[in-house]
Every structure is written in C-alpha cells, then in structure tokens.
C-alpha cells in the first residue's frame, strides 16, 4: 500500500497521472470497499497457511457466482442470461468436485478461503459501483491504498510481524530484495488492472477473467512447491 501511494504520487508529480488529493469525504466514500479488500487479503493469506495453491485457486473460482448474486442485490442489475449463469454454475460445480477429494483438506483453511471469496466479490462489486459514480481508476487505487495502509501497519505491529521482518535472515540478501521489490510492483499493477477491468466492464467480468488465471495457477501449483497429491477427482473438477 505504501509503495502504491509513493508510485502514484510520483506519477502525478511527473504528469503521467491525474487524480485529486486525499480528502476525508472521498476516503469515507471508499471506506467499505477498502475494508473488504483488506479482509480479503488477510483471509487469503490465512487460508494459504493450510491449503495448497491448486485447491485455493479452485476455490477462488466461486467468485463469479457470488458476483452474480451481489450484482442483483447491491447494484440492482437484471439477472444475467441463462448462458452466463450456466457457465458460472459449471465452473463452481467443478470447484466443489475438486475439493471433495483433497487429501490435505483443512476445514479451517477452507472456511477462511471461502470467506476471502465473499470479501473479494464484495469489494469488486463496490468498485464497480464507484466506477458508475465516475471515479478514475488511479483515484480509486489511491483511496484504497490510503485507507488500507494504516490498518495494515497496525495489524503488523500487533501480530509482531515487524519484529519478524527486522530479524529475517535474508533481509539484506540482494536476491531477496529484488524479489520483494518485483512482488510489490506486480501487486500494484495487479490492483490497478483489477480496478480498471471492473470499472470498464463489471465485477463479474473481472472475476471470470480471474478464473482463466486460476486455471494456469492451479496447473503451475501442482508442480511449483510440492506437497500436492494429484488424483482423478481433482483433475476432473
């Protein structure tokens, strides 16, 4: 969040981006989406402590179904076509099949993952709503970062993570530092892309594009870090 604020302000200073300064009114307008965004990030990390990447990726494919429900309830949009509902339902059903025979099943991790799915669908839906109010993508990204940076910092202090970072044995390792910087910048680009896609298209479109990403993530996850048992039911799902 801090890196995003610095980069956005730098781009605005050089004239590459234009967005208003932070005011309390705008921060309050985006407070709810930021809260759901922060909860999604925290719950996802907690879930990944007890879930392998392929199964987490499969679980995330439930987001489009939740987005359809929220678009009708929150955005008051008409129910999507039968083709869209059928495709999304098939994707969700595949997720359930994949999870039925997960040999590393952890109920708590799956609960946290399911909650992160709901939080993601909520913040994407509210971002779409903000886009309908003509807020720029850069402005939304800036508001989200400003709203999130202090709560994240407080949580890091309370959980002792800052102390852990200070004593991390690879903190001064150049390769680790480069990897960290690249991860932060990719996170910035990811958030900008998510918000831009949601504003131009819809929360449902963004989540369905995420399904395509999850397919690749699942395939890579089977081999990247080990500890994953592949079976017929997983692959069928």
From TrEMBL:
InterPro entries per UniProt = TPT_transporter
Keyword Membrane in record: yes
Give the domain of life.
Answer: Eukaryota
Q: Which residues are listed as membrane-spanning?
A: 30-48, 107-127, 139-166, 178-204
- Keyword annotations: Membrane, Transmembrane, Transmembrane helix
Could you tell me the membrane topology recorded for this protein?
Multi-pass membrane protein
Location within or outside the cell: Membrane
GO CC annotations, alphabetized: membrane
Q: Which PANTHER family match?
A: SOLUTE CARRIER FAMILY 35
What is this protein called in UniProt?
A: Sugar phosphate transporter domain-containing protein
Taxonomic placement: Eukaryota, Metazoa, Ecdysozoa, Arthropoda, Crustacea
